[in-house]
Design goal:
The complex is a heterodimer. Chain A is mainly β. Chain A contains no helices and eleven strands. Chain B has no helices and eleven strands. Chain B is globular. Chain B starts with a strand and ends with a strand. Classes of the chains: A mainly beta, B mainly beta. The interface of A and B includes residues 45, 92 and 103 of A.
Chain lengths: ~110, ~110
């Protein structure tokens, strides 16, 4: 595997379910990001981790819970979601946070909340 | 307020018909401007970074230019495989990327 991978690629869940999204980066980067992408809207930054520590949390509802066990893996735990949370969830990584390093993206998880 | 605006929202061209996409920005101190390409159902793919006004970068049929207020992505003699959504982004004072909503480019054969 190379680059940034995400699983699953597609997820359908009910409002009462609990699920998790997984991201893995094979680039040796120190920073990892979760973004939400809704149709015809700009990417919204949700969380930033640098060396496994959360450095940014952009007013994201508590039904989204990130976890970064090491610098290569990032999870997004989902519970009690709403239909408006349906979107493409993108993971990205960069060499360092707080810099202008290029961010490299995974293919995303298409989430549908029924 | 930091802001990035892309225009047009969508652009349909015939194969071989050259054109330009616009990304205008307002940010306190430019720390770079990024262009990405995104195909349907995929994550954004990095194209270019520009750091200062007057800078230009090229890749195949694409050329990105930068002024103090905007960036252009020029596409010369496009092919159907250039069809995608093109995104631009600039870092704010906290180095968080502020993204435009993108331009969906459709090249008809």
């Amino acid at each position: 595997e190379t680059g940034v991978t995400q699983t699953p690629r597609h997820l359908v869940m009910g409002m009462t379910n609990k699920k998790s999204l997984k991201c893995e980066q094979h680039l040796g980067h120190n920073a990892m990001y979760w973004y939400k992408q809704s149709a015809k809207k700009p990417l919204e930054l949700m969380f930033v981790y640098s060396l496994e520590e959360r450095v940014e949390n952009n007013s994201v509802p508590s039904r989204f819970s990130p976890e970064c066990p090491n610098s290569s893996h990032l999870f997004l735990h989902l519970h009690t979601l709403q239909p408006e949370d349906s979107a493409l969830y993108l993971c990205a990584s960069s060499q360092d946070w707080s810099s202008t390093d290029t961010q490299y993206f995974g293919p995303g998880t298409r989430l549908t909340v029924l | 307020e930091d802001q990035v605006t892309q225009s047009p929202e969508a652009l349909r061209l015939q194969e071989g018909e050259s054109s330009s996409l616009n990304c205008s920005y307002t940010v306190s101190g430019l720390r770079g401007l990024f262009w990405y390409r995104q195909d349907p159902g995929k994550g954004p793919e990095f194209l270019f970074t520009l750091y200062s006004a007057g800078e230009e970068k090229e890749k195949e049929r694409l050329k990105a230019t930068l002024t103090k207020k905007e960036s252009f992505l020029h596409i010369t003699a496009p092919k159907p495989e250039d069809s995608a959504t093109y995104l631009c982004a600039v870092p704010d004072s906290n180095y968080q990327l502020i993204w435009g909503a993108g331009t969906k480019l459709i090249i008809k054969p």
